[in-house]
Amino acid sequence: MEKPEYPGGRKALDAFVAAHLQYPEDAMKQRIEGIVAVAYQVSDEGEVQNAAIIKGLCPSCNEEALRIVNMLQYGKAHNRGFRLKANCKLNIHFRLAPAPQTPTVNITYTTSKTAQKSNTPPSKGGYTITLSVGNS
After folding, report:
1. Which secondary structure element, helix H or strand E, spans residue 65, and what is its range?
2. Which residues lie below 8 Å from residue 45, measured CB to CB, with a gap of 6+?
């Protein structure tokens, strides 16, 4: 039996999943990441049937993974005249983009007491400036 193949192979399958995956809003807010494993059958006509979650993540991610798998359309398989179904499994990865880090800049300065009392510019050592840059 020749197994049905997704048109374009594994790279095309991964590209299809990436293009159509819609990260569930609730999972995004809760920063849920992981893998949903889906088992399914592909008919000799290339249609996906009986998709089921075999390793879930959260209800909304599981639902999205099933939606993606049910959208798949495989090529027809040649089975020497017999109508057979192929069993397949697909892992769908839910990964969030890293949270953007906003750099912070803190500037502090102090003046000497003599510079504060007169209107003349401070002499050597009159100001202390500290600059620190970091991610919050």
Report:
1. helix 59-71
2. 76
Residue among 71, 63, 60, 75 nearest 17 (CA): 71
Q: Is the pTM of this model over 0.70?
A: no
**Domain-by-domain residue ranges, the chain?**
9-94, 103-135
Looking at the domain that runs over 9-94, which CATH code has it been given?
3.30.2420.10
Strand 48-55 to strand 86-94: parallel, antiparallel, or no bridges (unpaired)?
Answer: unpaired
Q: How far apart are CA 86 and CA 34, in angstroms?
A: 26
29's tokens: 């807010």
Write the secondary structure of 1-46 as one string of H (helix), E (strand) and C (coil): CCCCCCCCHHHHHHHHHHHHCCCCHHHHHCCCCEEEEEEEEECCCC
Report the alpha-carbon distance of residue 56 to residue 60 in Å, rounded. Answer: 10
Q: pLDDT tens-digit profile of 84-98?
A: 888 999 999 999 887
